[in-house]
Automatic annotation (TrEMBL):
<dbReference type="InterPro" id="IPR003439">
    <property type="entry name" value="ABC_transporter-like_ATP-bd"/>
</dbReference>
<dbReference type="GO" id="GO:0016887">
    <property type="term" value="F:ATP hydrolysis activity"/>
</dbReference>
<comment type="similarity">
    <text>Belongs to the ABC transporter superfamily.</text>
</comment>
<feature type="domain" description="ABC transporter">
    <location>
        <begin position="5"/>
        <end position="232"/>
    </location>
</feature>
<keyword id="KW-0547">Nucleotide-binding</keyword>
<keyword id="KW-0067">ATP-binding</keyword>
<dbReference type="GO" id="GO:0005524">
    <property type="term" value="F:ATP binding"/>
</dbReference>
<dbReference type="InterPro" id="IPR003593">
    <property type="entry name" value="AAA+_ATPase"/>
</dbReference>
<protein>
    <submittedName>
        <fullName>ABC transporter ATP-binding protein</fullName>
    </submittedName>
</protein>
<dbReference type="InterPro" id="IPR027417">
    <property type="entry name" value="P-loop_NTPase"/>
</dbReference>
<keyword id="KW-0813">Transport</keyword>
<dbReference type="Pfam" id="PF00005">
    <property type="entry name" value="ABC_tran"/>
</dbReference>
Length: 310
């Protein structure tokens, strides 16, 4: 499985405030893992513990299967962008990277043109930092992370504040780094839509606790159509469905409506089945449930009913 990061019962308390509840998390080699949570959910605190910027209140962190002092050797295989790096406004991209190259002891001078090319800034390398767009600034931040040729990138909200074009550029860059350079990526955002479908895994964090950890495929499945059936006898309908489809997933909503989230392609049969078993079907429709709604329900606790009224 080659875990790059593993945390075991990791917690962080600021005074009496438990900001990260006991967290078991594994980042596997090759993943683009998205950590999604509202502002204040604990994303930065979690990343800062991984980087060593702050120490955990309890629990363990292993990096590349190393713990304690042995971690120092492997830490250079990871690069973190937790806060926007301080770049000099009057320096060009090249000059800014050169400053950090020397400071960080990266010997190969040729890394600078290489990373500028990787992030798509080679044509802009003579422009001063202050004349860069937000997206270009963020890409320069990622270029800085890449200077040391890491195997793993950890990026805290790199898309925050970018326009659609900037978001798209960062998305494409991350996929390229992952696919072409085999860099494992852990990235956070407070908006699922920003990372939608570029990540191979989505971890949702709410009030310092992981509330869902699902693959891209599972997330896609959740966004697929679902059946809403309004019936006169919801308990009989549920019984019929469970007998014929033991693995069926459904919820009973208000007003006698069943929301069926699996077996959606069996819609026709489900309708017939209910009618044949004496259930009065008052309404039957196949509906879509967007990923945004799913995310809102998960992290904000809004019910489907509230969402469908919007
Ligand atoms: N140094 C600190 N001292 C006290 N409380 C802190 C400290 N750092 C963070 N917190 C609190 O911890 C909680 C989680 O903050 P954190 O910055 O990790 O969240 P986040 O998910 O990264 O949010 P954002 O997207 O707004 O950065 C918040 O309630 C925050 O106020």
């Amino acid at each position: 499985m080659n875990p790059i990061i593993e945390t075991h019962q990791l917690t962080k308390k600021f005074k009496e405030h438990l900001v990260i509840k006991p967290t078991n998390f594994t980042l596997k080699k090759g993943e683009i893992c998205a950590l999604i949570g509202k502002n204040g959910a604990g994303k930065s605190t979690f990343f800062k513990m991984l980087s060593g910027q702050i120490s955990p209140s309890s629990g363990d962190i292993s990096l590349f299967e190393k713990t304690g002092n042995e971690q120092e050797k492997v830490k250079k295989r990871m690069s973190f962008m937790i806060e926007t790096p301080a770049f000099s406004p009057d320096f060009t991209a090249h000059q800014n990277l050169e400053y950090y190259r020397i400071q960080r002891g990266v010997i190969e001078k040729e890394r600078i043109p290489q990373v500028l090319q990787l992030v798509g800034l080679e044509k802009e390398k003579k422009k001063k930092f202050k004349d860069y767009s937000m997206g270009m600034k963020q890409r320069l931040g990622i270029a800085l992370c890449l200077l040391s040729s890491p195997d793993c990138l950890i990026l805290d909200e790199p898309i925050n504040g970018l326009d659609a074009k900037g978001i798209n550029e960062i998305r494409r860059l991350l996929v390229k780094l992952n696919e072409e350079k085999q860099i494992t990526i852990l990235i956070s955002s407070h908006i699922l839509m920003e990372l939608q479908l570029i990540a191979s895994r989505y971890v949702f964090i709410k009030d310092g606790e992981i509330v869902e950890d699902i693959s891209k495929e599972e997330l896609e499945e959740k966004s697929q159509k679902q059946i809403l059936v309004k019936v006169q006898e919801p308990s009989i309908a549920a019984q019929v469905l469970e007998t014929v489809y033991p693995t069926i997933q459904y919820k009973v909503l208000t007003e006698n409506t069943l929301m069926i989230q699996s077996h959606v392609n069996q819609g026709g049969h489900i309708n017939t089945l209910l009618i044949e078993n004496g259930v009065h079907v008052l309404e039957f429709r196949i509906d879509t449930f967007s990923l945004e709604d799913y995310f809102l329900e998960l992290v904000e606790g809004e019910s489907y009913d509230e969402l469908s009224k919007k």
